[in-house]
Write a structure and sequence with these properties.
The chain is α+β, with helices and mostly antiparallel strands. The protein folds into seven domains: 175 residues, Sandwich (Jelly Rolls), CATH 2.60.120.260; 87 residues, Sandwich (Immunoglobulin-like); 240 residues, Glycoside hydrolase 38, N terminal domain (7-stranded beta/alpha barrel); 96 residues, no CATH class; 63 residues, no CATH class; 250 residues, Golgi alpha-mannosidase II, domain 4 (Beta-galactosidase, Chain A, domain 5, Distorted Sandwich), CATH 2.70.98.30; 75 residues, Sandwich (Immunoglobulin-like). Helix content is 20%, strand content 34%.
Amino acid sequence: MAQRIFLLFIFAVSFLCLSIVAMGQDNTPVNTPSPKLLWEIGSPDNKCLEFTLAPTNYSRYGDDSYFMVGHSNPAEDWCYIHPGPKDEWAQTIPHIFTVLFFLKSVETQGDVQLNLYLLEFNKNYPPNLTVYVNGTNFPVRLPPGNGTDEFLSIFDGSVSSAKKIEIPFPSSLLRLGENVIQFTVSSGSWFIYDSVQLFTPDKFELAEPQKTILRIGKPVPIPLVKSIEDKELREVRIPVRCYGQPFQGKITITNNDPIDINLQPGWNTIYYDVKEVDKDTFSSIEIKQEDKTVATRDFIIPPAKQITLYLVPHSHNDIGYTHIQTDVLKIQQGNLAKALDLIEKTKDYPAEAQFHWSAEVLWAVKSFWQSADEQTKERFKKAVNEGYFELPALFANQLTGLCNGEELTHLLDEAHYLSKELGTTIDSALITDVPGYTWGLIPTLAQAGVKYFFIGPNLSWRIGNILEVWGDKPFYWTSPCGKHKVLTWIGFAGYSWFFGGTNAMPEQIRNYLAELEGRNFPYDITLARYSIASDNGPPDDKLPDFVKQWNEQHKTPKLVITTARKALKTFEEKYGNDLPSFAGEITPYWEDGAVSSARETALNRNTVRKLMNLETLWALWFSDKYPAEKFQSAWENAILYDEHTWGAHNSISEPDNPFVKEQWAIKKSFAENAEKIKADLFNLFINNFQPDYQTVSQIIVINPTPFPCTKTVIIPASWGRKGNRILKDGKPIPSQVLQSNDLVFIANEVPGWGYATFTIEQGELPTPENPVVVSDNTLQNGLIELLIDPQTGTIKSLKTQADGKEFVKENPQYKTNEYLYTEGRNPANIKRAQNIQIEIKEKGPVMGSIVVHSNSAPGAKEIRCEYVLYANSDIVEIVNSIDKQDIRTPEAVHYAFTFNIDNPNIRYQTPFAVIHLPEQQLPGSCKNYLTVQDWVDIQNEEKGVTLFTPDAPMIEIGKITVDPIEIGWKKGLILEPQVFSYVMNNYWETNYKASQDGGHTFRYYIKPYTKNTNDHPDTLAKQLNSELIIIPTNNIPKPPTNPIQISPDWVLYHLKYNPDEKAYIARLFNPTSEPVSVQIKKPTSTKPIVITSTLSPKPQSEPFTDRSLAPYEMITLKIK
């Protein structure tokens, strides 16, 4: 390697020496302005986004830029960054950027001026720039910069003001015909371009070249060696740019025979077979026409690396999209059967060519196994246990950012079942198509025993730069607590690289290997998905014979048909000790499509939370009647709603097509079915208490959380209550009759996992300690004062009354809880509601509310907002409602929240993790929008505010940056105290919904705090998400079974029951950044508590003893 780099340096220096042909001339120019812009590369707009690789892909630097004026364009031919000899990512050699142009008229008097607009420089190693004009050199002193390599990773492509460098020179240096201007950094490091401009006197005119110009790009020796008779031939990929007319000639590489070439204008790719070499060999490419040399380029041919390419056959399970969902299930069941046949048919093939199959996900496997006859089950079980048929751990290709922690664990339910049913260990997982994955998936997989995670993203559709950053760069993905890791491989070939099947495979293998070589792939093992035809495509019965023949005819690469598990296990055994580890989230990209059906998405989010509460209540109160099958059905429906296939491939282009409508009806039914089963489970639970809704004189209030809970309780007007006064232990407590005639009161300190009894009678209603006082546009209760702007209906002021601290910024561009409608894809086209009306709804003292509404809101028939404040509460509740118009042109809806928090630290909750921005977003993450579970928190040294968003999963930080297709993918975050709840869009071109209409509700809770009074947002979120259960009954129940006593109680994430094992399942999670000591007691049993979750037929259970939970650690316990 050192010899190769040294030779490359010599080539660069030699090229420079040849270029400097007029060093003795007087280079002192007359400093007069140049009136005419002759040409420019890029615009001086303080941005580099028009250039190739911009704004963060510097590590993919390949060839030096070569720009022919009038023919080249910046997006393809001019790199945004110019490296220097200090830059290891560019081979630590000088790099020459060349501009070629032709003139048909010149003048010798006057000056020419070259203007460079530069955005940033490396501050540690300032670049020393030299400009050559037809060989005459002009050293350029650049101003100090502020950039670092870390800056390059987060640069968003723009600065506030570019630095302008003026380089005047005599016009006599330019000549008729061909002219060359070159730029090189002779020492130091990189700088970033904004624009290059050349100004000349008025008589200068550009001309077209009188001959065809060829430029040989960077040759790539591909590690593909054919064995032909007694020769070994290696392919070299040679890009050649043809400027002008088509070209016919010959190309030769040193010590190899010439071949004929026919080049068309533009880029051409030539594949040239050279003799394999046994050491780094200096070579030269020469292109001739009739014995005249037209272009040359030197390079080095190294010996070909011996590569093994593991192919993982599978079918991408789109549950819909290509076919109606029910038809897809039949197709995928058929694929499983065909794969089983192929496995058996090729058992006698060479090991590398024997057919294997990965089920990808277990959605279709579940019904395949259930419906199979005994003979098929035995064949299937044999193929699985012999390693030919891979059962990955996940149930579906999930939008993981939409899932809460418990939903993530249910993605493994079928894997748990099949591992025991088939007697096999499942330790690999696949996700296909989807780019970006919530961090909490990693501890969920790791604690289930999953070691390998093979991801095959979409190759181009709304994927940001995830493939550029992570493609074929395997790493250990570390869990938030740091105790677990999963070997993760994000395939650069995605999942569709080989859609063309074996006919297109030689070309695709060649292209894939060329990509690997161009990106300096360091390993001799790689793996790629193999799926054909399309999504939901079949197994390829031609693949085994193709692989057999290929391996007979090629020395490298060797092809092997296998599974992800086998390939990654082999790779880990060889390279595992040398792999890097990374901790953080690869923030998802596709979850934004879920808000194209915002109503159903909100429904599913809340169903999942209520299912968790019901699982706990049934476990505590009626474990002997625990309805496990109903719960399982509800969870499966919820999972299928959050699965990535939203609808048909033509959902946007043909939204009224019956094919589209039927798919959406089925997709929508997943959310509705989950909610219906949840409601059935709730009613079954309530009916155990024999409720009486006709003569309500007593109610019990049940707390599903493990800690004492204080919340408002509303008794519906439809219940036949005996009065309006509520008593607790015979003492009246504050209550209030609402305009709806519902009765509201505050249930204080209802015991964790317990209940409290209240009676109802007629009588005088007492006033709470901190009553709500309502005026025209103000709500206050002694703790919080909320001021509403009557002109806009937004929050003008939010103060804590004890200290008068203000939490809302004064006169911001975007006001707090402001409805923002984007017409089109550009956030510059934001429109606001007009004709705001405001009125008092509830006047206190327990509950006060003010309603704001407008019939002049863009995109809506009406918008409505109710601001609510309760006595003794320091949390503001907001209920935003939209009666949406059905609009099919691109649109988006946001609610803005702008806070008065200087120098903010920002974090947000995801399943089993808290993401601290920006450091816990891994490179390649989506930064235009984030997917949040319950809350986002903004704080500084003095104070903070937590925004809870139970219904809407998407947020943006700092500014609105959607649609990325219009304004680009962000490479960094602006950490400003401004959150945009991104509640609706129809921006996708496929899959998601084209429009949505009707009623939508989005709730928010705002909790201001000072640093010494903050409760952890996770605990508050549990309280907000866990409704107190109200049951009108005269039967005082026995206290529920309490299987464990845990301290501190807030680490208990979830409790449920497993009737098959007659065991309680408790999930613990420490949501804080500090370790926490956990103690558990079992009041009713002496059997040991064990840590469990492995996907093995005989899981190993580790006994649990009192211990410390690491920051963000999650564990699962089994309690008998």
